[in-house]
Amino acid sequence: MTTRSPDPSRAASPSGIRREPFGSTAGGEAVERFTLTSASGVTISVLSFGGVIQSILVPDRTGALADVTLGYDTLPGYEKDKSYLGALVGRYANRIRAGRFSLDGRDYTLAQNAGGNHLHGGMRGFNKAVWSVEPLEDRGDVGLVLRHVSPDGDEGYPGTLRVQVTYRLTPIGELAIDFSATTDAATPVNLTQHAYFNLAGSGSGDILGHVLELNASRFTPVDATLIPTGELRSVRGTPFDFSTPETVGARIGADDEQLRLAGGYDHNFVLDRASASELALAARLSDPVSGRGIDIHTTEPGIQFYTGNFLDGTVMGKGGVPHRYRSGLALETQHFPNSPNEPAFPSTILRPGADHRSRTVYHFVVRD
Ligand code: BGC
């Protein structure tokens, strides 16, 4: 099997950025949509609402385009969404036990919005904010700089957090996402992008036939509320071993306590990496039928692999097709869940004067 960037000769249009209105929120804030076109034929649209990646058009082996990410056609879909489809997630992506943590001798209580735990920043996380957006064109790359200020006390978090996220699409079909943040008081920070992928095309079926490889020899097992127990467990000999390529569905129904607790895969994998801060391979995903693939590199220590177990077909997505059970999967680069309560996990505490920085690159590819 060979992996290549999509064929530039098949590009629908030259690289560029289109900007258009996308309605206004229930609160009256204007929202815009930005469409990034690259010479590779990969086209990505992004909303100022939630920094949402609304669509990702990727050519297959024959050049046929499909939109490989789940989402909605209109703004009200995103305003009502509870699945974080395509959104930027913060201030803390993933769960914090009971929404509680102590920092520098003080106890904090955050919004508890997921079975008594805090999830993805709370009731109104960064996914529900209207971000300011500035287009960026640089040596053949097209991109966007998104900014958001989270006030002191937002969802219970301490300190004013200034967040910047840059999306940059390169001529060979890579989407580089740079996260940065500064604060005026110590606070936990864990930022991620929450796209759900279906490489056969959003709305086309489930993701059980996708082939996944994860560069992880350990994962963080969870309790019944999906909070890590603190253990870093070897994947060897378990359905969590994706160290060699395996279909997502091959073992998802196995008689395994961790799969039962989460109703499938909904776990953080501990990435194997030579250095703590270099960009390293995290995951390779492919749809063997169309040949579409994604290679994910990141500076983060973990990746949450979630198989859309809570999608239940009751919410209509793009083109009036419901988001059915396991019709998309998320691969969320991140620090480990509940890190503020686990001193042995890599720290997620950002202090005044320091810069939070992380980078994740999705390379959309074709595998022959
Ligand atoms: C989590 C799931 C959660 C989902 C929300 C994922 O990142 O791992 O447990 O239900 O986000 O849609």
Structure description:
This protein is mostly beta strands and 368 residues long. The chain contains two helices and 29 strands. The strands form seven sheets. Strands 1, 12, 13, 14, 15, 19, 22, 24, 25 and 29 form a ten-stranded antiparallel β-sheet that branches. The chain is globular and about 60 Å long. The mean pLDDT is 96. Bound molecules: beta-D-glucopyranose. The site of beta-D-glucopyranose has 9 residues, from strand 26 and strand 27.
Number of alpha- plus pi-helical segments: 2
Shape: globular
* Overall pLDDT metric: 96
How many strands, which pairing sense, and closed or not: the largest β-sheet?
10 strands, antiparallel
Q: How far is it from the N-terminal to the C-terminal residue, by CA?
A: 6 Å
The number of E-state strands comes to 29
Bound molecules: beta-D-glucopyranose
Kindly state the percentage of residues in helix: under 10%
Strand content: 35-45%
Assign the structural class, choosing from mainly alpha, mainly beta, alpha/beta, alpha+beta, or little secondary structure: mainly beta
Low-confidence stretches: none
Q: Cα-atom Rg, whole angstroms?
A: 19 Å
List keywords for this structure.
29 strands, ten-stranded antiparallel β-sheet, 2 helices, binds beta-D-glucopyranose, six-stranded antiparallel β-sheet, mainly beta, 368 residues
Question: Secondary structure elements and their pairing?
Answer:
Layout (H helix, E strand, L loop, with lengths): L2 E2 L11 E9 L5 E8 L5 E5 L5 E7 L5 E3 L7 H6 L6 E3 L5 E2 L3 E4 L2 E4 L8 E2 L12 E7 L2 E10 L10 E9 L4 E10 L3 E2 L3 E3 L1 E2 L13 E4 L1 E5 L12 E2 L11 E2 L9 H6 L3 E6 L8 E7 L5 E7 L3 E5 L22 E6 L14 E2 L5 E12 L1
Antiparallel strand pairs: 1-29, 2-3, 3-4, 4-5, 5-6, 7-17, 8-11, 9-10, 12-13, 13-14, 14-15, 15-29, 16-28, 18-27, 19-22, 19-24, 20-21, 20-23, 23-26, 24-25, 25-29, 26-27
